[in-house]
Amino acid sequence: MESSARKPKPRRVDAGLNLAITAATVGWLGVSLALFLWGFDIDFSGDPVSPERQAALDNRERLRIIAFAGGPVLIAVFAVVVERPRTALVYILIALVLLCANVSQERVRHLFVPPSVEVEDPGTDHCVPISGSDRTCPGG
Question: What residue intervals traverse the membrane (predicted)?
Fold first, then answer.
């Protein structure tokens, strides 16, 4: 007995598309790792950061967020174009998770900034007795 319903054609696996998506993923991970390591290029001296340096650090942070979340979006767009909807969905979810993590980090950053501590200048109002000098310190 022959079935009247037609069997769907098996989906053709295109190795070139799989390779392209894999290469894009590896490239995105490489760029993300490079930007992550570039983030450690900061000054640990404890001196206040100049406004110019802070602007450069803020721009670097924006670039990192765009690369972290933008890479999966570009890969998802490519997956949609080559008709890989499940792959596109996975990369969109990755992009959303990374974007939410980065935005929440930006939102709570100000909560962890330590308050500035003002150090008083000791000045010259204290008395240092020196042997043989004419200084007269109170109390001896």
Answer: 20-42, 63-82, 88-104
- Decide if 135 contacts 129 (C-beta within 8 A): yes
Q: Which residues contact 77 (CB under 8 A, 6 or more apart)?
A: 88
Tokens 């406004």 locate to 51
- Which secondary-structure segment (H or E) carries 108? helix 85-108
Write the CB contacts of 87 (distance below 8 Å, at least 6 apart in sequence): 21, 75, 76, 79
**Residue 76, Cβ density class (10 Å: 0-12 exposed, 13-18 middle, ≥19 buried):** buried
How far is 107 from 101, CA to CA, in rounded Å?
Answer: 10
Measure the CA–CA gap between 81 and 116, rounded to whole angstroms: 52
pTM: 0.60
Confidence of residue 69 (pLDDT cuts 50, 70, 90): confident
